[in-house]
Amino acid sequence: MSSTLNLKTRQLSTFLQQYVLEKKTLILANKKGGASLRAGTDNDDIPVLIKTWPRVPGTDDSDVRDIWRNEIRQLHRLTGHPGASDYIVELRTTHEDETGFYLVLNPDQRRPLDKLLGDEESNGRRSIPAVLRDRRVLWRNLRRIALGLEILHSQGLLHRNLSTWSVLTAATNEPDFQLTGFEWSMRLVSSDDKPGSRKADAQRLEGHSFIRDWQDFGQLAVLLLGLNAKIKNRAIPNHEVTATVTIEEIKFVRQLLQITPTELVDGHFVVMRIDEILTVLDAHTRNKEPRFSLVVSLGQQSPLARKIREASGGEIELDDSVSQREFVEADLFNPILISERVIGFPDQFNLVLRGQHLSYQLQDYTFGPEKTSSNWDAAACFRADLTMPLFFKIIKTMPLSFKAINLMTPSEMKANTHRIRERFTSWDELRKHLHPVTPSAGKEKLLRKSFALTQMLEYLFSASELFRVEIVKLPANFVIDQAHQNILAVRPRPDENRDRLSLALGLRDVLAVRLERALLEDRTEHDESRIQSWRLTDSSILGGRSESKTEWKFHTTVTASTGETLYIFFGDQPAPTVAEAFLISEDSVGTHEQFLRRMKSFKALAEHGELARMLVDPRSRVMHIVEASPSSAQFLELDASKQDAFKATIETMPLFLIQGPPGVGKTRLVRELVRYSISEDSSARILLSAQSNHAVDHLLHEMEEFVDQPADVKPLVVRCRAGGKKDELSPFDIGQQTKRFVSDLMKSDLYAESSSQIRRQIDQLGTSYGLDGSEENWDSLPPISKSSRRALEGLVLRAANMVFATTNSSDLGRLIEEKGQFDWSIVEEAGKATGGELISPLLLSHRRLMIGDHKQLPPFGAERLLALLAKPKGVKSALKLGDPLIGRMFRDTTIDEIFSDVEADESPAGEQSFAELCNKASRAFSLFETIIEDEFERQELRKSGRPIALPLIAQHRMHPAIATVVSNAFYETRLYTDKDSAEKFRTEEAPIISLDPGKLPDCPIVWIDMPFVQGTMHMKFGEALPKYSNDLELEAVEAVLKLLAASPGVKKPPSLAILSPYSRQVSKLNGITEAGSQLPAALRQFTRAAKQKTFCSTVDSFQGSEADCVVISLVRNNNLGNVSSGLGFLADPRRMNVLLSRARWKLIIVGSLSFLKKIDKTPKSAEEAIRTKFLEILLSVVTPSTPNENIRVVSYSDLIGKLI
Fold first, then answer.
1. Global pTM value
2. Each residue of 1049-1079: pLDDT tens digit?
3. Three-state SS sequence of 671-693
4. What is 956-1200's CATH number?
């Protein structure tokens, strides 16, 4: 295997012809499944290594194919691990044809280590390249392999093939070892695999383990250190093994080989021991350190001399250059070299040499009258600072020895310029180490800053909702409810700083008005039950420390004797006595916890080069993946659109995006992808996430059918949920799953055969879960029980095949910290998540699928944040005002750097740089929309390259007539009704009928045309304040409901939903549909939509739901003269898309067509015209020039049977 032979002359496969291959093979293939290895270059002269498993015509090579696919799978799994690309060879592409199976690797200049070693000598040793004889370089290289193995082991993978052939290197002075050779790697899986199957046989341990991998690592160290057989003879003391290496090295190698048994050998232990060895070796060679030339400008006119005088307390005179030189030499006895970032210029940095008293600013030395650069052969210093560089400007530090710096004056340097390169080492070597900038590093840093900026602005919006109040006495006329002993009365207090911040953020109302609105009105973006609990704190800073935190629920308002409004709250604790009091909603408190988790995910992104590069340029490394062709009955049942998307998804890495318009069956596609993945690999781990708990629960519900199917081993499913939500528990919740495991364990033989101590610990776990009959109460558990439960639940989480969690889940944060990895990360409703919210699930896998629809509802708060980012000067103003209101817990170096950018650089270049950052932040905030729109634009231009996004275009939910309206108005007519679904709507009877088709026609779409306030005599009002309601439309909706009925003979009651963009209208609609405890007779034959507590909902809270019949109250009807103020939410095509696409069989719209036509004809800006184009299309479809039997318009007067 190790010999080098000439290849026989033969015709290369078509695939290999695209490469220029060397004439000699590096490794020959063998009959046991080993691949051949050849080096070459591609058409751009970039080096490649190609592994080939030859195919023999007429033979069954399925086993060879399994070996080939196994290496692909392991390389893919490792790709997503942070830092893996540094230590593990990168897979470039794969291919399969009639002549062989191929892997193309990106080795840079590396070759297999074995090819650099000499032939085996008579003593069993092999000659080692000179560069590897430097044991510091060697151990640093072995450290890289140890880190690669630890990455492998952290994912439950064994290497099983570690040798000189599975290590690549270019054998330079810089450590560069990379790990490869994964064809025999395996994942540790359950022992319940079917015996006798090829998969089970391949996964049998056969003596292999993590320890065995480390023993192979030890054998590699023995070879490279040139050790003899004495190392394995335990009777020979360490100091007698050899004189060429240290005793510490011998001890360590024997620990690796298990000659000296060690309790725990893992990556952490190995790296720690290597670092200890390097410390010893560095100490031995300290006197051989390279020296660097530094030219210092001293004397009376020197700025440096003035700083030296200041640092010496005035003792050194400005004209005493000798004392100045002595000061610098003493000051640089143990110097630290620092790379310092240049604010606003991510690719630039300064070098600073820190002594005991001064920080010396270094620059490239120039010589001669033309100031010719020395290219950092020497450095010069003309000035210094008393203080260290600001911590957030420091990129990296490096300590230097006291002999490393050779001081020279300009005259000395002038005399020795020609000998500089002979006598001294170039500073450029240190510069590369301190700031190893790659072409994309600046872009990756800008990406992280853009995410941080969006986070900061979210902080500021949150800080603007910290309401300053004064605790006051209860009015004498307030009747105290005996059921509530703890009552709090407050009134708003002025807060000029926060009001100025609010104005800078584009929030026009003062705090007192916004507090009233938050307490008395539901915000459209939230459902009706969310903002109820409030926290009273004495801290005015977001994330600041508080000595007093109590929780309260808003009750009512009362009027004080002075006439001002007081707000009354009930609580579980007495009201505190504080000098300054602030109210913040519990909803915001939960958001703060999400902020902290997001900060950690951004930090993890900085260490995850693969993901960062992909987000900078999603097409930078698009890989075609060879997968088994799906052929299951479930796959064949998918429509053609979903089949195309399915195949493209499984064949593309590392990212694929799917646009899912309403009713296309996005979740069905996800279910089949999960089914396929687990059927291909029973050990597969899949993360399924979404921004909202509702969407996650819907995903889980859709998967239950698949999970519950009979199987020898069912996949382990875990639902992650925030603590304290016991009313929402399901059998899949992580606590319930762990409880089941503990219960099974307590009934097992393993428990019965365990020691009394172990049984006692298991019993304590059982008690903590209430398995002894006691009530399970987390708060009453002792700390040791809580710790044991967390640890065990963490194991269950890491072992689960399917994990369901929101994108903001704390459990995802835990997995990121533990560097957990999944085979797939699937994000549903990705268009509703901010870019910052998407980072966590994207970090957790090398294969990522995002499904969503950016033409439906955007992330919460998107409009106000994107509007602010469009005005960089406004962003700067808000940051300056908000800086004092953001606590330390919400800051890190990147955020402090942005605050510094705002304060430091007002130059045109700085302003341009900040404007670019704001633009990047806008794109990062709408990450899903950004990537998918860029890709669709590329496809429309018919550019070459594999697609990374596709739309689903066959809908199944809506009656074809409703689907046509949605398709024309929002999807450029691309959305169509699947033929089988169209046939169902054509042949089946609708589940809802009209009791009076003369008033309410029996057709799929009915528009109840309300009188336009501007064109109707004596009609003064259409819509009403507070924002917004419309009583006339309430009457129309009530009349509609009385005319609806379930079709005779329907098997189950049809579902009904009543929607409006405005929560005030929804509240009033609830008043007519949920009268007391008795449901109105007209509604008793209908059911509410799934997961909905009432018939009535805002559009925001109903996304993702559907109903057989949907009634919509548009509300707006006014004399206002522009699009924005006149239409309000109705001008948002995304909200209107959701409103119009929820109905399956019947859509009834209540609104004024004349009002909408008037708005449509109103002069608009170019942006408004694009935004409201859907309105023109909608009106043309609803009021066609020729009659349409599927769409009818009924006047309000005809509906109620009288003129207004």
1. 0.83
2. 898 999 999 999 998 899 899 988 876 545 6
3. HHHHHHHHHHCCCCCEEEEECCH
4. 3.40.50.300
